[in-house]
UniProtKB/TrEMBL annotation, chain B:
<dbReference type="GO" id="GO:0005886">
    <property type="term" value="C:plasma membrane"/>
</dbReference>
<dbReference type="Pfam" id="PF19300">
    <property type="entry name" value="BPD_transp_1_N"/>
</dbReference>
<dbReference type="InterPro" id="IPR000515">
    <property type="entry name" value="MetI-like"/>
</dbReference>
<feature type="transmembrane region" description="Helical">
    <location>
        <begin position="232"/>
        <end position="258"/>
    </location>
</feature>
<dbReference type="InterPro" id="IPR045621">
    <property type="entry name" value="BPD_transp_1_N"/>
</dbReference>
<keyword id="KW-0813">Transport</keyword>
<protein>
    <submittedName>
        <fullName>ABC transporter, membrane spanning protein</fullName>
    </submittedName>
</protein>
<keyword id="KW-1133">Transmembrane helix</keyword>
<comment type="similarity">
    <text>Belongs to the binding-protein-dependent transport system permease family.</text>
</comment>
<dbReference type="Pfam" id="PF00528">
    <property type="entry name" value="BPD_transp_1"/>
</dbReference>
<feature type="domain" description="ABC transmembrane type-1">
    <location>
        <begin position="100"/>
        <end position="301"/>
    </location>
</feature>
<keyword id="KW-0812">Transmembrane</keyword>
<feature type="transmembrane region" description="Helical">
    <location>
        <begin position="278"/>
        <end position="301"/>
    </location>
</feature>
<dbReference type="GO" id="GO:0055085">
    <property type="term" value="P:transmembrane transport"/>
</dbReference>
<keyword id="KW-0472">Membrane</keyword>
<dbReference type="InterPro" id="IPR035906">
    <property type="entry name" value="MetI-like_sf"/>
</dbReference>
<keyword id="KW-1003">Cell membrane</keyword>
Length: 510, 315
């Protein structure tokens, strides 16, 4: 073989590499450095090219870039953010008055036209966010320079709550001119994105013209690190100052580290054993209650979650405004469980159930094994089926299963559990895995949806929660928590599902 | 030579067709609704809106028969258009470009390190058979072969990042961040290369032409460099190309542990999210590169060893 021929082959290899995209961007860049810069480790990278109708909006909100008309406060409340006030002028009409003097990071003013354009863009998405879609919103119009009118197809007391979800974030008109949404320089938040390192990090600098006062940190970097143990390592090495969603073993490891503080907050997420209410033996309330009494949630919390969770008191956790007063965990009582089965006229040995534990569920295989043993103690035989969630979902939705472990967020679409209760526990709910149907519950949820007063609404939610728990529609096991490690010296940080980088964060060194 | 290249191209074509058909079936073979999985990769809420599911199914053309989807994809792929990622809606070639660049850099450095360490170690062991050096090298390489990456990587992080604080524990930012993942990836190929170099060099050192070279007045080192290494390199090269092709496809374990945006992590998450265009593009690129690299190696093999050229009639 001569050299020119060899050269041809090498050129062909190079061309193939190029066609596979070797000419694409290569990642590079430096970290946030300096005394007034911090690094935040987050578990999830943006996955949808900054489409705000997806979870990418949460990434932008946590990064201190994206802001919404309404701000969500931990504990269920809302308060003004980009909107200074709002009013329901008619049953299906809400007027939002914008905060004066706010500008986008590109210098353009935040006016009604820009806000209406951003919200219309959210509605026009081919797969809009469930909390803000053409099914819930009829129209968005700019009434004058500072008023945005939103009309709904039916009276909707929850509209301001919908506008607190990051999916309804407002970007400058320039952000929507390209083929994909561009948040660089188009947010209103305390931090401006200066560089994106695909799948790795975003670098940010403070917004010197932030509407809500001076921003204490000069810059920050948000890194996307999927491995929980690695996020814990980075806070130990000083490479990060905030590490979110730490795995339980890492939390135990960090507790002895004096330079790190671990904050643990309850999440609006509960792990439950979904029982198929339309299929025997779970179509019998006594049998469901027997399962509830047989399962020791305290033992599960200690063994599987190693204390990083709370025994469930129902679908909602203690301290949430819609949790029934005095709600307490069900105490494990095998004797009572046997008695309930006897009352139901069902022999324990005649019950054979299959428990689905999907692979993506954290600790689900251990959880299923413990439940299996606890059921065995009352004479019930349970088998465990493990599979990917995608492959068991058709069975869950069609009702072709007995029981399944599920980790469920009840504030996924907005800071109010209406969407969750409607999807999971109404007769026509789109995610009613327990196949529970009771017109009384439907009526309560419908009544709550129309209540303008939050206290009235929350009281109705609490009634629904009490009903679900007392009738053992599902067995609620553990309220999940999120542990965040923070470098000591960092001030102004609070664990929040929507906001991490805020104007108040400071290192306290300068 | 032309016949050789044409044969290899045909093999490449048939392999790519078979692989593309198999990967297209992955989302359907694993059960469940691919549209729900795609949507869930973008929105963490489990309760999906039925109208959103229908809209996405229509938008992505997943409501068409699978054969029509496959042929439509194939038609575009032939023209070099791998389409858009279902989850990120970014052109697949753009995503692959970044990832291959990363995995390629890592592979070159890891294999280079392995090669540079293996050559002297293997040669040294071959020159002192049965002696301490030989036994030491054998012990070392056998240990390295047995060390899994998922164990080694955290240990390296623990020592060099956490306790010594010399190197970053994750990321792909500057030259220092390449060291730990490259070391992790280099150790096993280094062990194999060393073992093969030792065996090949032992044969070479015992061959008559080495004795002849020495008898012509060449020193031991000169004979080794001029005649020994060239012949001993042949089996190492074959191994080298196989490892290189494998590493170009990315290492899921190392890329996840070190948070490296390479091919392994990209294609793995594409499989999890049923992102068919990305799976297709990723696997096709990896297979194409693997076949091309082995072809180039075969050609280089012939270049280094004239006997191969004569035997295969490649001249």
């Amino acid at each position: 073989m001569n050299k020119p021929r060899l050269a041809l082959v090498l050129i062909a290899t190079t061309l193939t590499l190029t066609s596979c995209g070797m000419g694409g961007q290569t990642s590079s860049g430096g970290g946030a450095t300096g005394a007034r810069s911090i690094v935040v480790d987050e578990p999830f990278a943006p996955a949808a090219n900054w489409a705000l109708e997806t979870d990418d909006s949460f990434v932008l909100s946590k990064a201190g870039c994206l802001e919404t008309l309404v701000k969500y406060q931990t504990g269920g409340g809302i308060k003004p953010m980009l909107a200074a006030s709002w009013k329901q002028t008619r049953p299906t009409t809400w007027d939002f008055t914008l905060r004066p003097g706010v500008t986008f990071q590109d210098g353009t003013p935040l006016d009604a036209k820009a806000v209406a354009g951003a919200l219309k863009h959210a509605l026009a998405a081919k797969t809009p966010a469930p909390g803000f879609s053409p099914e819930t919103i009829a129209a968005v119009t700019a009434v004058d320079g500072s008023t945005v009118r939103i009309t709904t197809p039916a009276p909707d007391a929850l509209l301001p709550y919908r506008l607190a979800a990051p999916n309804t974030g407002i970007l400058a008109p320039k952000a929507y001119t390209g083929s994909s949404t561009n948040p660089e320089g188009t947010c209103t938040g305390p931090f401006r994105i200066t560089k994106e390192i695909p799948q790795q990090a975003i670098q940010l600098k403070r917004n010197p013209k932030y509407w809500n006062g001076p921003v204490k940190l000069a810059s920050a970097e948000v890194r996307f690190i999927a491995d929980g143990a690695k996020r814990a390592t980075q806070i130990q090495t000083g490479e990060a100052q905030i590490s979110r969603k730490l795995p339980v073993p890492s939390v135990q490891d960090l507790k002895g580290n004096s330079s790190v503080e671990v904050l643990t907050e309850q999440l609006p997420r509960t792990t439950e054993l979904v029982l198929n209410n339309k299929k025997a033996p779970f179509d019998n309330e006594k049998v469901r209650q027997a399962f509830q009494a047989a399962i020791d949630t305290k033992a599960i919390t200690n063994a599987v979650y190693q204390g990083a969770g709370q025994q469930a008191v129902g679908p909602f956790g203690p301290g949430e405004p819609w949790t029934p007063d005095g709600a307490a965990p069900v105490k494990a009582d095998p004797a009572k469980a046997k008695a309930l089965l006897s009352e139901a006229g069902v022999k324990p040995e005649s019950i054979k159930v299959s428990l689905i534990a999907y692979n993506e569920g954290s600790g689900f295989s251990d959880l299923a094994a413990i439940i299996q043993q606890e059921l065995k103690a009352i004479g019930v035989k349970a088998s465990i089926r493990t599979a990917d969630y995608a492959s068991v979902e058709p069975d869950l939705l069609s009702g072709d299963f007995d029981a399944a472990l599920l980790s469920r967020n009840h504030l996924g679409d907005m800071p109010d559990p209406l969407g969750y209760l409607t999807a999971d526990y109404t007769c026509k709910g789109s995610y009613n895995l327990s196949h529970y149907c009771d017109p009384k519950t439907d009526g309560l949820i419908k009544k709550a949806a129309s209540a303008k007063d939050p206290d009235t609404r929350y009281a109705d939610y609490a009634k629904v929660a009490a009903e679900l728990q007392s009738r053992a529609v599902d067995v609620f096991l553990v309220h999940e928590t999120e542990s965040v490690a923070v470098a000591s010296g960092l001030k102004g940080f609070a664990v929040h599902p929507y906001y991490t980088l805020t104007a108040n964060l400071s290192l306290g060194t300068k | 030579m032309v016949r050789f290249i044409v044969r290899r191209l045909l093999v490449l074509l048939i392999t790519l067709l078979a692989v593309s058909a198999a990967t297209f079936a992955i989302p359907y073979a694993s059960g469940g609704d691919p549209v729900r999985t795609i949507l869930r990769s973008r929105v963490s809420d489990q309760a999906l809106d039925p109208s959103a599911i229908a809209a996405l199914r229509s938008e992505l053309g997943l409501d068409r028969p699978i054969l029509v989807q496959y042929l439509s994809w194939l038609g575009r792929a032939v023209r070099g258009d791998f389409g858009m990622s279902f989850t990120s809606r970014t052109p697949v070639d753009q995503l692959l470009g970044t990832a291959i660049g990363v995995s390629g850099t890592l592979a070159v450095i890891a294999i280079g390190l392995a090669f540079l360490a293996a050559l002297p170690l293997g040669t040294l062991a071959a020159m002192r058979p049965g002696k301490r050096v030989d036994n030491g090298v054998t012990l070392l390489t056998q240990s390295f072969v047995a060390v899994p990456e998922y164990w080694l990587a955290p240990i390296l992080v623990l020592v060099f990042s956490r306790y010594l604080g010399w190197l970053p524990s994750a990321g792909w930012r500057d030259p220092t961040s390449i060291i730990l993942p490259a070391l992790t990836l280099a150790l096993r190929p280094m062990a194999y290369f060393t073992q093969v170099t030792r065996a090949a060099m032992s044969d070479v050192l015992a061959s008559p032409y080495m004795t002849a070279a020495r008898s012509r007045g060449l020193s031991g080192g000169q004979a080794l460099l001029r005649h020994g290494l060239r012949n001993a390199l042949l089996p190492v090269m074959t191994l080298f190309s196989l490892w290189f092709a494998g590493l170009l496809g990315g290492s899921v374990v190392v890329e996840v542990i070190f948070a490296i945006p390479g091919m392994g992590r990209l294609v793995y998450s594409a499989v999890v999210n049923h992102d068919v265009p990305l799976i297709q593009g990723g696997i096709l690129c990896t297979v194409a590169l693997a076949v091309l690299i082995t072809t180039v190696t075969d050609l280089l093999y012939a270049l280094i060893n004239p006997a191969v050229r004569v035997r295969d009639g490649a001249v």
